[in-house]
Design goal:
single chain; about 375 residues; alpha+beta; BirA Bifunctional Protein, domain 2; 3 domains; 4-stranded mixed sheet; 12 helices; 16 strands; about 20% strand
Length: about 375
């Protein structure tokens, strides 16, 4: 990053950092490279394809560069914070992915927050509200929030008893909402007509709250698990309507990104003009089981590079101009007073640039001028 970009990044980082602290979330810093058995936990296997692998020259063991920080944070909660009832953690750092997408490319600046120890919708609501507050805090507006629940699809898969290969193919078709292809694929597998019709209808179950009424009619015959998932979505959506007016809520029961990773409510934030989400998250209870602590968990993540691309660099609150100061005054006493004035201004948070060349004047909108026994500020 060049200076202008780096300045914007640090400005956003500070605002987001302080926001998470104000909600009671504590910062953690997981390692950048770890042994694979630690990095790719059972919850992190979705990231196996995205993980760069390297050999540790000291031990000969395989190591990986983190492609996602959530499993690492889950280990911190399980090991270092063992015994704490509720833990709220957040993090910010570079991750490296073998296959990049979005504004962050293959090296996003992943920002996220995780809440461990609570399994009710109140914690889902808190994480969604925190995500929306973080986006609003850095100037992102006109947010559209997609809500889904992976338990609906999971329950359907249990009925169909498909192989892992067929599950992956069906997942891809559902993400593309390719109804005719789904119908043809289901027919080739000998799936019953009722289940085949349901798979096709799942693609159409997206929109406002009326979608949930349709879903109850269509999916209710499949039992309480389906109805419980729909009811949970309704409660979260209605609560968000009361608690937060900064986002338009949209339901999508075929929203399955990370369905192997998540096991409850999932969500994603979108803005007009961008086809991909700018932030997302969901529930992933039991993520710490491999570390000896199968705790309820929910969280969200975003990419700071993506947020930077949504913020105007012309915002004067982001890029602050400086004060130009001469190297010295008209006498030794005047020079000493100048140095004291520069220190005072810097301690007050001002940017003071001591002039060494001509180009520095373009970075300042004020200048220190010697007048009598004092140094005063004047506009350039």
């Amino acid at each position: 990053m060049l200076p202008q970009e780096a300045h914007i990044r640090e400005h956003l980082r500070r605002r987001i950092y302080d926001l998470h602290l104000s909600w009671g979330y504590q910062p953690v810093h997981p390692p950048f490279v770890e042994y694979l058995e630690s990095l790719l936990s059972s919850a992190g296997r979705d990231f196996d394809r995205q993980t760069f692998k390297i050999v540790d020259p000291a031990s000969g063991r395989m190591m990986g560069v983190r492609a996602d920080m959530t499993p690492q944070v889950a280990r911190i909660d399980a090991h270092q914070l063992n015994g704490i009832d509720i833990s709220r953690l957040f993090y910010l750092g570079t991750v490296i992915r073998a296959y990049g997408d979005g504004a962050g490319g293959r090296s996003p600046l992943q920002l996220g927050a995780e809440l461990f120890g609570h399994s009710g919708i109140d914690s889902d609501l808190e994480i969604i509200q925190l995500m929306l507050a973080a986006l609003n805090n850095v100037g992102v507006r006109d947010i559209h929030l997609d809500l889904g629940h992976v338990e609906i699809y999971r329950s359907l898969l249990e009925r169909l008893e498909l192989s892992s290969v067929d599950q992956a193919a069906l997942f891809d078709l559902l993400q593309r909402k390719a109804e005719s292809d789904i119908s043809q694929f289901a027919g080739s597998l000998g799936i019953a007509d009722r289940d085949k019709e349901l798979l096709c209808q799942l693609c159409t179950l997206n929109g406002d709250e009326s979608v949930l009424d349709r879903a109850e009619t269509i999916l209710g015959v499949y039992g309480d698990k389906m109805l419980g998932a729909i009811d949970g979505l309704r409660k979260v959506g209605q609560a968000l309507g009361v608690l937060n007016d900064s986002a338009v809520v949209h339901y999508d029961l075929a929203e399955l990104r990370g369905y192997q990773y998540h096991n409850g409510i999932v969500f994603a934030a979108y803005v007009p003009g961008r086809g991909a989400e700018i932030a997302r998250g969901g529930r992933y209870d039991g993520i710490g089981e491999v570390f000896g602590s199968a705790r309820p968990a929910t969280g969200y993540s975003t990419d700071l590079k993506t947020l930077m691309s949504l913020v105007s660099s012309a915002d004067p609150s982001i890029v602050k101009r400086g004060i130009l100061a001469p190297m010295s005054g008209s006498s030794a006493d005047a020079t000493q007073r100048l140095r004291a004035k520069i220190q005072q201004l810097r301690s007050a948070g001002e940017i003071v640039i001591v002039q060494l060349g001509k180009s520095e004047a373009s970075m300042c909108d004020q200048i220190l001028v010697e007048q009598g026994s004092d140094w005063l500020l004047e506009n350039c």
